[in-house]
Amino acid sequence: MPDHRYNHQAVEEKWLQFWDKERLFCDTDLALTPEEQKDKEYLLYAFAYPSGSGLHVGHVEPKTALDIQARFKRMTGKKVFFPVGWDAFGLPAENYAIKTGIHPRETTKTAIDTFRRQIKRLGISYDWSKEIATNHPEYYKWTQWIFAQLYRKGLAYQSEGKVNWCPSCQTVLANEQVIDGLCERCDSQVIQKNLKQWYFKITAYQDELIAGLQNVDWPAPTKSQQINWIGRSEGAQVDFAIKIAALPADKWPKLSIFTTRLDTIFGATFMVISPEKFEQQQLFAYLSSDKVTQVQAYITKAYQKTEETRKIGEKDKTGVDTGLLVVNPFNQEEIPLFVADYVLGGYGTGAIMAVPAHDERDLAFAQKFGLLVKEVVIDGRLVNSAEFDGLISSVAIEKMLASHPKVARRSVNYKLRDWLISRQRYWGAPIPIVYDPTGQAHLVKAEHLPWLLPNDVDFKPTGESPLRSSVEFKARVEKLYGKGWTPEYDTMDTFVDSSWYYLRYVSARDTKQFADQNTLKTWLPVDFYLIGEEHIVLHLLYSRFFTKFLRDEGYLDLPSGEPFAKMRHQGMILGPDGKKMSKSKGNVINPDEIIQEYGADTLRIYEMFMGPLEADKPWNPRAVAGVSRFLRKVYRLVNREIARHQNSSLSLLSDRQQLVQKLHSTIYKLTLDLPELKYNTAIAALMEFANLWEKMDADDVLLLKTEEIVAFIKLLAPLAPFIAEELYDQAKVLGFSAQKSVHLESWPAYDQALLQKEFTNLVVQVNGKLRAQFAWPTKNLTDQAAILNQAKNLEAMQKWLADKTIHKEIYVFGKIVNFVAS
RNA sequence: GCCGCGAUGGCGGAAUAGGUAGACGCGCGAGACUUAAAAUCUCGUACUAGCAAUAGUGUGUGGGUUCGAUUCCCUCUCGCGGCACCA
Predict the structure, then answer these.
(1) Taking a C-beta distance cutoff of 8 angstroms, is the pair A405, A280 a contact?
(2) CB 3.0 to 4.6 Å from A376: which of A36, A158, A267, A812, for a disulfide?
(3) Which residue's CA lies closest to nucleotide B2 at its C1' atom?
(4) Which run of H or E residues covers position A775?
């Protein structure tokens, strides 16, 4: 059984109630004076989906890490804003509803209640007065309002196109939800379907989404993911002509290609067009009859493959010769035109010039079809390229563009596509659109927002949007807009909800606007965003897009348009076996059980002590017990010291300098480590202090002054808020000017003079190898001659220098002496 | 294939404007307290040789720069993550 002297269960529950009653971290006043604004600190943890299974130890780490920041920053006088909310719409709740018939609203509410209780139990100091949930009409009213703003600017539009469709989930999927051609959620084969869908025109911001990254403090891999996803690539478009014998040359149809390697154009030995583009450009008319059949057959077959399976068939190139010839405008060579699905319809112009000598894919295709390979760049310089021979590639490209302005022009391409936001699902925000009897789309009027999600729906997937089954929804539209009017039945992608939540936090209860402009100006950007590194590429792109859009509309005074100034990623907590925790592996650790056995303080400190925040770390059940030992030791030490202070016959130990120094160096260490999130080393420093304290602890003497005891308790407060509050409360009998809570205290200061010891240990090396050490008065560390002399004459050094000549003497201030000798 | 990250005792990890490698914790060993256990405390613990003092070796591999390299540069090996027919 654990030590009964510290009853973590009772103590933690007591302070939990106290903080709640006192509303200690709630009702943050967001109106700051210009002076206060310099100290604002907006701390944000990733928007969480309230899953039915409750809190996981993996959630505890980042929440605790930010909570420590919040508490530490408050103690150092910062104006901290630390809100919480729920990304509450989404598929899991709906799928659960399909299975059980329980309405998603109920399961979501239950899940949020559980999460809230668990998070409070951990002692996370969120401002619960600003809590939001995306499924509340007060929230999604403004999600819909943002849709309306985008629609008015032409940045929300409807378009018919091929989309990924999961036949089992009965909904559209985003590209990243398709893994190897299968649905991420249910592993069904994903098919391509032509549907009219709503899109947000994020591509309007593509260049700014790249440029803005220069001004944010984010991990480099996260930035490069953003850049790769946008996929900007500079190159040229070149017009080739299709040779039609029956027409004069100036009437030949043009076919444009996109290339980043214009310098290799003399090596183009064939051209390839994608099946989609071939159809779109209506090139069948130019084919001979037998070719029509062949090409048609190929295109039909290609369409049966999905976008994803096309990618898998990477190595095995397929295609068909059209029998047509195209003319290379640089050398007038006539080269064959192929249709092949290794060229994508949606990128560039959907057609390429194939240069097998300098492109792997073209080479593979050329080898399969027995086509010419012609080298045009050797050792970085052009050959076989007429007047461009001998130029380096970059120069050649410029000259080629300049000399052929009619057929070649600069061109920039992007991989980024517009954001498909329609979902044929129930549990999301309805798209605020109604259709008149002619099928024309109209925005739902502002006074009808929030455009409520109907209740009378059948969740069972039918291939159509569940909202179609609502009688109320249809009736509502006819009542408000007229007979024959119909609603949009699709809901919005939940990414829409989570792309602006950090703006809503500052005006969580505002019923007049999505957020107050002045408050936004005060608090944005978020100073520190902590979020896992998985699945954030789109969340970040979308959030940045929304922020920039709202800035451009004048709702947000944030010139950079970058919502997250600094971002870091927490690592994963792995199972004791070093593998990712999962129910099937049976290696899941339940935080409730750890709290039950050891308390929330132990759980917090343990997770922070495991290693660097960003690293993946395996759980070690025994090490948890070690942290628990440390906290009980601290409790004992402080208790004993307080008790001795109440015995007036005792006095301070005269020789306690070492402990006082250690206290100040510990304050110093934490003051440096905490803002840098180096919690593992901060905790190690606290342990060192406790170890020394324990070693010096004696029954008949006082070791620390009252203010020193309190200073130590304050150091503990951000990390272990419960035990710190308890010890602070107990220390009140010592009669210092106490606050209501240790968490309202100010951070302790360290005495610079006490950081330096009287003597410094200097190391003596010979040829870089440690041979001796000696203590030297710290105040004389500048006396190089004396130090070198002392080092040379150390007894331990004699055998190392005896029959040697010293060639060089090195002294590194306060650290080391090295003799180079032979 | 491309891009990025990483490799330190039995384990998690400390220490990098280049300067005592292994802080702190776990584990392990010995001891104190106890009738006993639990709890708690003390000492030890990179490896090799030695009773010891001490000496040698040591931060994935091989090399380089340097008086001195876990730290900087190059090579390779292994592991992890992301992207991937984007012309």
Answers:
(1) no
(2) A267
(3) A228
(4) strand A769-777
In contact, A147 and A446? CB cutoff 8 Å: no
* Residue A284, CA atoms < 13 Å, CB-side half-sphere: 15
Nucleotides of B under 7 A from a protein CB: 3-5, 11-15, 19-21, 23-27, 38-43, 55-56, 67-69, 81-87
Closest residue to B5 (CA to C1') is A221
Q: Alpha-carbon distance A494 to A135, whole Å? A: 10
The contacts of residue A683 (CB under 8 Å, 6+ apart) are A605, A608, A609, A719
State ipTM: 0.94
Provide the residue count of chain A.
Answer: 822
Kindly report, residue by residue over A688-713, the tens digit of the pLDDT: 999 999 999 888 889 999 999 999 99
Q: At residue A176, what is the residue type? A: E
Phi, psi (rounded to 5 degrees) for A254: -90, 145
**Which nucleotide in the DNA or RNA is closest to residue A264, CA to C1'?**
B87
Task: Give the closest residue to A283 by CA, choosing from A252, A304, A307, A259.
Answer: A252
Span CA (A806) to C1' (B67), Å: 11
Within its chain, how far is the Cα of A514 from the centroid? 24
**Which residue's CA shows the smallest distance to C1' of B24?**
A684
From A643, A593, A644, select the one nearest A619 (Cα to Cα).
A593
The Cα A276–Cα A282 span in angstroms is 10
- pLDDT tens digits along A595-618: 999 999 999 999 999 999 998 888
Residue A42: strand pairing partners: A81
A684: which nucleotide lies closest, measuring CA to C1'?
B24
